[in-house]
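The instructor's notes for this session suggest beginning with a concrete chain rather than abstract definitions. Hand out the sequence below and ask the class to guess, before any prediction is shown, which regions might be ordered.
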Amino acid sequence: MKIAVVGSTGLVGREMLKVLEEMHIDIREFYAVASEKSIGKQLSFNKKYYNIISLAKAVESKPNIALFSAGGKVSKQWAPEFAKVGTTVIDNSSAWRMEDNIPLVVPEVNADVLTKNNRIIANPNCSTIQLVVALAPLHRKYKIKRLVISTYQSVTGTGVAALQQMEAERKGLNLKKVYPYQIDMNCFPHGGDFMENGYTTEEMKLVFETRKILNDQSIGITSTVVRIPVTGGHSEAVNVEFENEYDLDEIKSILSTSKGIILQDDTSLNQYPMPLYCQGKDEVFVGRIRRDESQPKTLNLWIVADNLRKGAATNAVQIAQYLIENDLLNTK
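After discussion, reveal the predicted structure:
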């Protein structure tokens, strides 16, 4: 197996390398790809050092899989170039997610949409991934009618510059601000760019991507995205209205036995998901499960996951793993 990681020096790219090592994917040839300023530098992977190469050089090498985490502009330009030489691209940017002919995949939910003909596969937004992992088994059983989502997102979702800003603020230093306000000791309802409808791009991703992955355009969805000064992961308070009545114990049973989910829901022991304890883990953690007493057939959930792992790198590598195991790659 020949695998390239495009954007291998970034926050998510470095996490992809770590996940590839941990999953013990059998890689015969590995290509570390990054921006022009990094070309020629060395990068450690699987106890070896690799020279970082250019995108053009990586295309010439015709890898079986290219894991992309280099931003939408790079993906739009270069993913088709890799596809032309038979590479399957798994892209972590938002560039391809809402294209009709591009599958948007969370393996626990909809890996069955993948075929050998797919040359570009989109990795969903981090907050969408953890949301649909938790909701998909409930949607299959009770059918979701409406979602009200409030997210509490780690600044790492913005990238390394936001993380550096927060760390500098904690040391009393001044760095160029990624956001117009202080990150540390603060939270602000601003993730992505503001749109004409008053929502942000991050909020609308939750709407459009959730419907696409669950293959149900009828679900009513509204969301508010908030950035908070943590590094461990994203948290979501989700109010779920179902078409059908549910049993609370059955909800917990479904979640506790669904792939990729860890149930943490014992308030007598103060057990509930928190980003502090989800960091570095690949599962989606669900807790604070309770009936909405103001409205019938409605449930409240608290969902937490490491946004750099399951929310990005792990999900992408799991897609790669699925393609390999199911012989869905061009191996000529």
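Then share the key points. The two ends are 11 Å apart (CA to CA). The mean pLDDT is 96.
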